[in-house]
Write a structure and sequence with these properties.
By secondary structure, the chain is mostly helical. Helices cover 68% and strands 3% of the residues. The longest helix has 27 residues.
Length: 342
């Protein structure tokens, strides 16, 4: 356990030291976010591609701890590398959505080839048959989960420090869940990742001097989705759906609400808008810092519920998830999350 904390400190220091170097590189290759539409809340050009610092710190931390990597760790690093390469290209040139999707699927396939997949899920309906094997469907289910979470974190990256902070809280949640379930590899990976994020946050929190860009937001989503398959479970084999959905509550719910909102209003689900939760909080008169802190708080509450879900029966865990949804949807409707805002 103490080794995990030491490693988190080391990766935080690495990330903190190399982020200014990544910033210089971003400026040199013209990876700059210029505020050219009203969806952006910053008013001056900011270097992006900061996720490269998180990636380097994460990989160095994993290698430092293990020396010889396991098959799953190789799969995670290869997949993360594909995501980062695609993210860098996107931060410089703006990739079309279909190319980004292909890159995400390729990264997910790396996980499948290394043995990381959702093959068994918990059954909330029958106590005598607590687990359900999904057979060959594990391939599309795993790809959908990886791609979905990757894009969810990408979509909430709209305010200084928001995606990084929410990802950090999700890391801590998954680390606790993994430790409670004896999944030491997942706990180790989340410790390394949390350190890498923490070292980057001082540069990314408002007022940000560098953005993580698609390089970072997609990387965080990908890594957390992969690690959740390894760690957010009731046993060594079964994936409990309720836990990661609540651990990643903010990005998942915000993405689902965005898809529903665009469908209701006759818009393409790929069409960007200003209806995300962070936009609504700003419309209520909050500053960037206030909005981000509110979302940190909500994420921490959902993380606490996710931890609780691992300590109760499968049925009660799914009941908790349903209860969160029953409470969340009316609140979202009241504050206009489903209404289009031009």
């Amino acid at each position: 356990m103490s080794n995990f904390y030491i490693l988190a400190v080391i990766t935080a220091l690495i990330s903190f030291v190399i982020t200014p170097l990544v910033k210089k590189l971003a400026i040199k290759v013209n990876a700059i976010d210029v505020p050219k539409d009203d969806r952006r809340v910053h008013i001056k050009p900011i270097p992006v591609m900061g996720g490269l610092a998180i990636y380097i710190s994460f990989v160095v931390g994993v290698v430092l701890y293990n020396g010889i990597l396991t098959a799953s760790q190789i799969g995670i690093i290869l997949g993360a590398t594909i995501i980062v390469i695609g993210g860098i290209i996107d931060d410089i040139k703006d990739l079309r959505p279909k190319y980004k999707l292909l890159i995400q699927i390729a990264a997910a396939i790396c996980l499948l080839m290394s043995g990381i997949s959702i093959s068994i899920i918990t059954n909330p309906f029958k106590e005598f048959y607590p687990y359900l094997s999904i057979g060959w469907i594990n391939v599309p289910v795993t790809i959908i989960w990886i791609v979905g979470v990757t894009n969810a974190f990408n979509l909430i990256d709209g305010l200084d420090g928001l995606a990084a902070g929410v990802a950090f809280i999700s890391c801590i949640t998954l680390m606790i869940v993994s430790l409670l379930n004896g999944r030491l590899e997942a706990a180790f990976l989340t410790a390394v990742l949390s350190g890498a994020i923490l070292g980057f946050l001082p540069y990314n929190f408002n007022p940000a001097s560098i953005f993580m860009g698609d390089t970072g937001s997609q990387l965080l989503g990908f890594l957390l989705a992969a690690i959740s398959i390894e760690g957010a479970i009731k046993s060594a084999t079964a994936f409990i759906i309720a836990v990661p959905i609540m651990a990643f509550g903010i990005p998942i719910y915000d993405t689902l609400f965005a898809m529903i909102r665009r469908k209701i209003n006759g818009k393409s689900i790929m069409q960007a808008d200003k209806g995300h939760l962070h936009h609504r909080l700003l419309d209520m008169g909050m500053s960037q810092k206030q909005a981000v802190i509110i979302m940190y708080f909500i994420s921490a509450v959902l993380g606490g519920i996710a931890i609780l879900a691992t300590q109760i029966s499968n049925r009660r865990a799914y009941f908790l998830l349903a209860l969160v949804m029953v409470v969340t949807v009316p609140i979202a409707w009241k504050y206009g999350i489903f209404h289009q805002k031009e």
